[in-house]
Specification:
about 35% helix, 16 strands, single chain, about 290 residues, 11 helices, three-stranded antiparallel sheet
Length: about 290
Amino acid sequence: MIPFSEENKTYFSQFNRGINKDHLCSANLFHRKMMIQDGYFGKLITYNQPPVTNFCSVDIHSLNYKQESMDQAIAQFNALDLKAEGVSIPPELLDQFQSQLIYDYLLKGSLCYIEQTKRTGVERFFATKNAAIIKAFSTLLAPTDKKKKLTNFQDQFKTSYQELETGVFKAVKLQPEVDGFHLAKQRINSKQQVSIIPRYSLVNYAQSLYKYYAGKEIISLIYTDDDGAKQKIRTSFNIHCIAKELDQTPLAVYNYLLGSWTSPLTIGQLSLPDLDKKQFCSVPLLNINDIKA
């Protein structure tokens, strides 16, 4: 157990901590550290996720906080936050509820990227259990959804003991359409095949890929598509190389790719050129298996 102290509480607690509007997460030290770790080392921060094989990724359970396990610390201090909100977890159940406490912590503390496999295929969207994050995101909402009252989502903003017990969380789903993001009530079963990752982590990871490979002209990239098939493409992150291969101006390529790689409407995929087919394809970020320059 991590000793309770004001320093440790300040690091982990998301209770009344405010929001980092630029990164859409709680303004506490934990998320700040994760953003620095992501940005500086170019790592994708995950939890219970297979490692990304082609590039640096790190799972929360492999991180430490003051020589203690980071995942245990998150679970412990989220339990304290929940107790302040009226949800008490017996100390003897902390280990049993550890994964659920971490997923709840991420959903309450950030806008999360959700990727889950269903019978109908792969579903990608953003979700959160934090009303303040949706308010900070409000300029990107569809006109009809800007008028929706967040009081309609009170159950989604609270965490119940049942959610921790079952691992099925109520959250607000943010799904992009042509007119902006739409809000909907969503259940996320953390015990099924699902990825729950802070959006800032995914954005930093995508930017790291670009920064690392932009200096290379042509690379070979292998990824798994949504049907489970392995795909191999000859591609590039280099603006001038892409422009030459596709007979486009560097400015046109830059504007297209910058919009694709940085747009908040882009969820979990990179638009990259298949240089042999002379067309762009969507590459799932979490399913890139290998990159060779």
